[in-house]
TrEMBL record, chain A:
The entry's keywords: Oxidoreductase, Thiamine pyrophosphate
SUPFAM superfamilies documented for this protein: Thiamin diphosphate-binding fold (THDP-binding), TK C-terminal domain-like
Organism: uncultured Arthrobacter sp
Keyword Heme: no
Keyword Protein transport among record annotations: no
Domain Transketolase-like pyrimidine-binding: 4-179
EC number: 1.2.4.4
Molecular function, one GO term: branched-chain 2-oxo acid dehydrogenase activity
Cofactor: thiamine diphosphate
Protein name listed in UniProt: Branched-chain alpha-keto acid dehydrogenase, E1 component, beta subunit
Transmembrane segments: none
Length: 335, 379
C-alpha cells in the first residue's frame, strides 16, 4: 500500500497500463513536457517517449478523430480532454464514430479508446472549466461512462477503462485531485469490475446515491444525519453507464427512500434516470417519491456563485429531510 | 450590401484551366507531362484496357444499383456516374496493405479493393449498418458524416508511423467536405506529424445542390500548401493522370515525405443520391459540357488510336460487366433478412447490463406473440 493523491493514482494507473501494453498511447494537449495542466501525465512522456505520449495540436475533434484512426490500426488510445467544457468540438467524433463503429462494422472494428475528462466545479475557474457533461454521454449507446471518487478507484478504474474493448469516458472529479488515499499498486484490476457500485456507508433509513466529486460530501452528510438519528446508506455508483441498478435497488428495498445528488443540471440528468429506473423496479417499496439534489438548470455560474449551484452538505441534508417527509425548505411549496 | 453567395469567380474552384495535370485529353490524345510520364511508364496497352474494363464495370454496378433502387430493392443509392476515372485511377495505384477511409460514393474504390459485390449493397438495402469487415479489404466502410473519415485516415497513418511500416492511409472526400472542420483539422494533424496519408478530394462540383463555388473561392488544391501539405490538381476524368498523381503521392508517403493533397477535378453526372433531383438546381448545359469530357469515352478514343478497341475487346468487357451486374442483382435479392434480435448485436463488445435487460424484455415481448399464435392454432 502506498499513499497517493487522486491525481498521482491516475498517473500510476496510466504508467502501469503503458508498461503492460505497448499499444497504449496517450494523446492530448499539453500532456507531454508539461504533464498536462493538472500534471496527471507528469513524467510519462519522459519515460515512454514522445511516440507514446503525444502532444497534439489544439483541436479536440482532431484528437478524437485521429484516436479513432489509431484504434483502427490496433492501438488503445487514451485521450485527455483538458477540461470538461472543451469536449464539445469532439462530441461529433465521440457520438457518431467512437460510440458507433463497433456496431456499424458488426463487431469487426473495436474502439478501445479511453477518454479522460477532468469534470465538475468547485475550483474557482472561469466559464467552460467546471462542467458536468456526463449525461450527454450516458445517453449515447456504445459508450461506457465511469467516474472514480477516490485514489484506489482512480488507479484501478483507469486500468480497467484502458483494457476495455469498448470506448470508456473516464470522468475525473478535478476538485478531488489532491485528496490523498491508500492505493494498492499491486492489485489486479481484472479482479474487480468498474461497473459495480460500492456501498460507502451502510444505513437503514435513506439511500443516498452519488458519484465522483460528491461522494465525500455525501459521506459527510451521512455522518451529520446520523448525529440527528437518521441512518443514511451512501452508494458510490462508480459506473454511470451502465448503472449498477441491482445495488441501488437492493438498498432502496431496504430503506424505502432514495435521494440522488449530482453536480450536473437536474432536467434530463442522471438523477432522473435513476429515479425512474428505481421507481420501475421497486415502486411498492418506496415510502416517498425519489428526491433529487442537483445543480440548477443554468450554465455553470461564475465562481463567486458556484457554491450556490453545487449541492453541498446542507442541501443534501435538506433532501434527506424531504424524502423523510420532514419539515424542510420546500415544506408547503411542494406536495 | 445584401448577404449573398458569390458562387463563381474566375480561376475559382470549378475552373479546369492551367495547372491541371492531364495525360489523356478529352479527345483521347495522350499528351506528354514530363513530371508524371515516368510514373505510368509501365502502363501498357493491356493495362490501359484493364483500367477501361474497371471503369465500365463500376459504371455498370452503378446503373444496376440505381435500377435496383428504382425497383424498390434498395432504399437509396449514391451514384458515382462521371467519377469512374478518379476512383479507378487512384484505387488501382494502392497496395493491398494500404488502408482506405472513404465517403459513401467510393464504390469503385471498394471494387478495386476486392469487395464482395453483395457487401456494397447491404447498407443501402437496409440490411446492415455497413457492408464489410474493414480488415478483410483494408478499407473502412462508408462514412456518412461528411469529412469525418479524413481524421481516421490521419490517425491510422500516425499509427503506421509508430509501427515503422511503409503502408499509406488514403482518404476520399468531396469538395463539400473541404468546408468541414474535421478535414481542416486532419490536414493540421497530418502536417504536424508528417503522417503518411493521402487526401484524395474528388471535386465533383456539387455538394447536393450547392456548387463548389459556395465552398471555396480558390482551387481547393491551393489550400493544402497553407497547411504545409504539397498538393496537385489533376484531371479527375483522366484515369491515367489520376493513377500517376496517386502513385507520386504514395511514393512520397512511403519514403517519409508525409501527406499529399490531391484534388481530382471531375463531375457528378448523376444526382447526389437516388432521392435527389438535380434539375431543380443545375443547368442542363453544364451537364452537356461535362458529358463531352466523359472518362470512359476519352479512354475509348485513346484505345482506338492504339488499335486496342476492337470488337473482341468490347464484347469481353460487356460480358464481364453483365456478369458483375447479374451477380450484384442476385446478391441483392438473395440477401438474408436480419433477425429481430440482431438489433441489439455489437453495440458493445462485452455484455452491458442495461442493454441485456432491454433485450431480455423485448425477446419476452416478442415471444408472447409466438405463444398466442400457437395457442390460436391449437384451439
Amino acid at each position: 500500500m502506498s499513499t497517493l493523491t487522486f491525481g498521482r493514482a491516475i498517473n500510476a494507473g496510466l504508467r502501469r497500463a503503458m508498461d503492460n501494453d505497448p499499444k497504449v498511447i496517450l494523446m492530448g494537449e499539453d500532456i507531454g513536457k508539461l504533464g498536462g495542466v493538472f500534471r496527471i501525465t507528469d513524467g510519462l512522456q519522459k519515460d515512454f517517449g514522445a511516440h507514446r505520449v503525444l502532444d497534439t495540436p489544439l483541436a479536440e475533434a482532431g484528437i478524437m478523430g485521429t484516436a479513432v484512426g489509431m484504434a483502427y490500426r490496433g492501438y488503445r488510445p487514451v485521450v485527455e480532454i483538458q477540461f470538461d467544457g472543451f469536449i464539445y468540438p469532439a462530441f461529433d467524433q465521440i457520438v457518431c464514430q467512437v460510440a458507433k463503429i463497433h456496431y456499424r462494422t458488426q463487431g469487426a472494428v473495436k474502439m478501445p479508446i479511453t477518454i479522460r475528462v477532468p469534470f465538475g466545479g468547485g475550483i474557482g475557474s472561469p466559464e467552460h472549466h467546471s462542467e458536468s457533461p456526463e449525461a450527454y454521454f450516458t445517453h449515447t449507446s456504445g459508450l461506457r461512462v465511469i467516474s472514480p471518487s477516490n485514489p484506489q478507484d482512480a488507479y484501478t478504474m483507469i486500468q480497467q477503462a484502458i483494457s476495455s474493448d469498448d470506448p470508456v469516458l473516464y470522468f475525473e472529479p478535478k476538485r478531488r485531485y489532491h485528496v490523498k488515499g491508500e492505493v494498492d499498486e499491486g492489485s489486479d484490476p481484472a479482479a474487480s469490475s468498474m461497473e459495480k457500485a460500492r456501498v460507502v456507508t451502510e444505513g437503514s433509513d435513506v439511500t443516498l446515491v452519488t458519484y465522483g466529486p460528491l461522494v465525500p460530501t455525501a459521506r459527510d452528510a451521512a455522518v451529520a444525519a446520523g448525529d440527528d438519528g437518521v441512518s443514511v446508506e451512501v452508494i458510490d455508483l462508480r459506473s454511470l453507464a451502465p448503472i449498477d441498478f441491482e445495488t441501488v435497488e437492493a438498498s432502496v428495498r431496504k430503506t424505502g427512500r432514495l435521494v440522488i445528488t449530482h453536480e450536473a443540471a437536474q432536467s434530463g440528468g442522471l438523477g432522473a434516470e435513476i429515479a425512474a429506473s428505481i421507481t420501475e423496479r421497486c415502486f411498492y417499496h418506496l415510502e416517498h417519491a425519489p428526491v433529487r439534489v442537483t445543480g440548477f438548470d443554468i450554465p455553470y455560474p461564475y465562481s463567486k456563485l458556484e457554491f450556490h449551484h453545487l449541492p453541498d452538505l446542507d442541501r443534501i441534508l435538506d433532501g434527506v429531510d424531504r424524502v423523510l417527509g420532514r419539515p424542510n425548505s420546500l415544506s408547503g411549496l411542494e406536495r | 450590401m445584401a448577404l449573398k453567395n458569390i458562387e463563381s469567380v474566375p480561376g475559382g474552384p470549378g475552373e479546369t484551366g492551367s495547372g491541371l495535370i492531364q495525360l489523356i485529353t478529352a479527345d483521347g490524345v495522350r499528351v506528354p507531362e514530363p513530371a508524371y510520364d515516368a510514373l505510368v511508364a509501365d502502363i501498357d496497352g493491356a493495362a490501359l484496357q484493364g483500367l477501361y474494363e474497371d471503369m465500365v464495370v463500376v459504371r455498370r454496378i452503378d446503373s444496376e444499383a440505381t435500377a435496383l433502387q428504382r425497383q424498390g430493392e434498395l432504399a437509396l443509392w449514391p451514384p458515382l456516374l462521371g467519377q469512374e476515372a478518379a476512383q479507378i485511377g487512384s484505387g488501382r495505384a494502392l497496395r493491398s496493405d494500404d488502408f482506405v477511409f472513404s465517403s459513401y460514393r467510393e464504390n469503385a474504390v471498394a471494387y478495386c479493393r476486392g469487395v464482395d459485390l453483395t457487401d456494397i449493397l447491404r447498407v443501402w438495402r437496409g440490411n446492415a449498418s455497413s457492408g464489410w469487415d474493414p480488415y478483410a479489404i483494408n478499407m473502412a466502410t462508408p462514412q456518412v458524416i461528411i469529412g469525418a473519415q479524413t481524421l481516421h485516415a490521419t490517425g491510422y497513418a500516425m499509427g503506421i508511423l509508430n509501427d515503422g511500416d511503409d503502408a499509406v492511409a488514403v482518404t476520399y472526400f468531396g469538395d463539400g467536405a473541404t468546408s468541414q472542420g474535421d478535414v481542416n483539422e486532419a490536414m493540421v494533424f497530418a502536417a504536424s506529424f508528417q503522417a503518411p496519408v493521402i487526401f484524395f478530394c474528388q471535386n465533383n462540383h456539387w455538394a447536393i445542390s450547392e456548387p463548389v463555388g459556395l465552398q471555396a473561392h480558390v482551387p481547393i488544391a491551393n489550400r493544402a500548401p497553407g497547411f504545409g501539405i504539397p498538393s496537385v490538381r489533376v484531371d479527375g476524368n483522366d484515369v491515367l493522370a489520376c493513377l500517376a498523381v496517386t502513385r507520386q503521392a504514395l511514393a512520397r508517403a512511403r519514403s517519409g515525405g508525409g501527406p499529399t493533397f490531391i484534388e481530382a477535378v471531375t463531375y457528378r453526372m448523376g444526382p447526389h443520391t437516388t432521392a435527389d433531383d438535380p434539375t431543380r438546381y443545375r443547368d442542363a448545359n453544364e451537364l452537356e459540357d461535362w458529358a463531352a469530357k466523359d472518362p470512359l469515352k476519352r479512354l475509348e478514343a485513346h484505345l482506338g488510336s492504339l488499335g486496342l478497341f476492337d470488337e473482341a475487346f468490347t464484347a469481353a468487357v460487356k460480358a464481364k460487366a453483365d456478369a458483375v451486374a447479374a451477380e450484384l442483382r442476385a446478391g441483392c435479392l438473395g440477401m438474408a433478412e436480419p433477425a429481430p434480435s440482431d438489433v441489439f448485436k455489437h453495440v458493445y463488445s462485452t455484455p452491458n447490463s442495461w442493454l441485456d435487460r432491454q433485450q431480455d424484455h423485448y425477446e419476452r415481448y416478442l415471444s408472447s406473440f409466438a405463444d398466442s399464435a400457437s395457442s390460436d392454432g391449437s384451439s
